[in-house]
Amino acid sequence: MRVWREESGQILPITAMCLALLLGMLAIAIDVGQLLYVRRQMQTLADSLALAGANEIAQCSGTADCSIMQAATSAAATEDGYSSYTSSPNCGAVAATGLTISVNNPPCAIASDPNNGSKSYVEVVVTMQQNAFFAGFLGFSKIPISARAESGGASSNTPCVGLTGTSGEVLNINSGTLTMSNCALSFNASTATINNCNNINAKAVNLPGASASDYSCIGSGSAIPGTVNYNTTFSNPYSSVTAPTESGLTNYTSTYSTIGSTTTLSPGIYGAINFNSGTYTVTLNSGVYYITGSWVINGGVTLNGSAGVLLYFSSGYLQSNSSSFVANLAPISSSSYGGLSYWQASSSGVSTDGSLNLTGGLYMPNAQLTVNSGSTITTNEPLVVNSLILDTSLTDTYSGGGAGGGGSVPSLQE
Questions:
Q1: Are 256 and 346 found together in one domain?
Q2: Based on CB atoms within 10 Å of each CB, which residue in 172, 254, 339, 371 is the most buried?
Q3: Separation between Cα atoms, residue 318 and residue 356, nearest integer Å
């Protein structure tokens, strides 16, 4: 005899089980979706801060994790809507709650990173302790979400020092060292003679010639040291910059021919000026100085263009005749002139005494620059000259980007 069992009501527990399963899947989807959304926000923030930090590498003048860089990344975080967070620079500890931002210069988070330890790059790691909606029932009340970005580094083809001369002895290092650890020394000459090759310390040396046989090293060293790239076309960072004109500028050529005491000059057109011996400061207000003759500096004169200037010599040049001369020249904040502080169009050679301190670039594509013993030139932007003679050391700390934008724009590396 077949016994029929009562099956009514069994659909209820099956429905309950399916509903619970669906709700669980929905909860997981909500948590995962929220985590992915926050992760995307964190990556955007990391990218933004890495680029902001890399833009200030040149202004740090070779100092790791400088205050200018930290201020720039902090301002960028605020602009992106993150004003409250824990700052933990240089791979510091992650906070137990909220947002932690670690700005690392040099990068340090990943040991295998090829840029680990290089001050030419900025690494940003952001970590958010994100509250979970439903994962908390499984014991995961907070889930850490991290994102990393790295930016900086001028291209190895971007010169710290560029030599536009096409042949002959375009580089003569009589004494001292030519140092540019962040980017390249670039030649325009397919064949050239170099005095004291051993005194070159560069991230790379870029040469348009086919091989080492095209370049003759005399004096110390029989070959160019370090990374040497042959068959590399000369890269001029100022090739696209348009020279200023006299249009719209006030003409001061008849106002100043001699200066012998503390003076303030305004942007405009100037002729030849003789700066008499003495200890005084000539302040240059911000703007373009279109100069049609030579400025000859005698004695302990300080030329202060820290407000942002471009000295453009359409003819003539700046000649310093005293070791006590000091020039402090910053670039105009506008990118119109490629971050340049000094531009000489004429082919007249310049022989420097004293201290020429540039946070902008120096451009003498048709002229030879001689840096005399006891004098100093420092610059945070590319220095491009026809040929270079060193009787003392010269260091260029350019790293790409910078205030003027004369070089390559920092890019995200990872």
A1: yes
A2: 339
A3: 11
CA distance 371 to 159: 19
Q: How far from each other are the two terminal CA atoms of the chain, in whole angstroms? A: 77
The CA distance from 159 to 235, in Å, is: 7
Give me the number of domains the chain comprises.
Answer: 2
Pick the residue with more confidence: 220 or 24? 220
Place of tokens 């263009």: 305
Taking the C-alpha atoms of residue 122 and residue 113, their distance in angstroms, rounded to an integer, is 12
Question: Beta partners for 369?
Answer: 350, 388
Q: Does one domain contain both 131 and 205? A: no
Quick count: other Cβ atoms within 10 Å of Cβ 14? 9
The DSSP letter of residue 164 is -
In a domain, 248, yes or no: yes
Which pLDDT belongs to residue 159? 73
Q: For 319-339, what is each residue's pLDDT tens digit?
A: 888 888 889 998 887 667 888
| Residue 7 located in a structural domain | no
pLDDT digits (tens, 9 = 90+) for 229-283: 899 888 788 888 889 999 999 999 999 999 999 999 999 999 999 999 999 999 9
- Single out the residue in 102, 130, 152 at which a domain terminates: 152
* 282, 387: one domain: yes
What confidence tier does 406 reach under pLDDT thresholds 50, 70, 90?
very low
pLDDT of residue 155: 55
In Å, how far are 23, 271, 324 from 255, measured between CA atoms?
85, 9, 26
pLDDT in tens, 127-152: 988 766 655 555 566 778 888 998 87
Angle at 45 between CA 43 and CA 48, to 5 degrees: 110
DSSP code string of 284-348: E-SEEEEESS-EEE-SSEEEEETT-EEEEESSS-EEE--TT-EEEE---SSGGGTTEEEEE-S--
Residues 361 and 246 in one domain: yes
- Distance, CA of 392 to CA of 355 (rounded, Å): 12
Same domain, 103 and 191: no
Check pLDDT > 80 for residue 350: yes
Q: Phi and psi of 389, rounded to 5°?
A: -120, 125
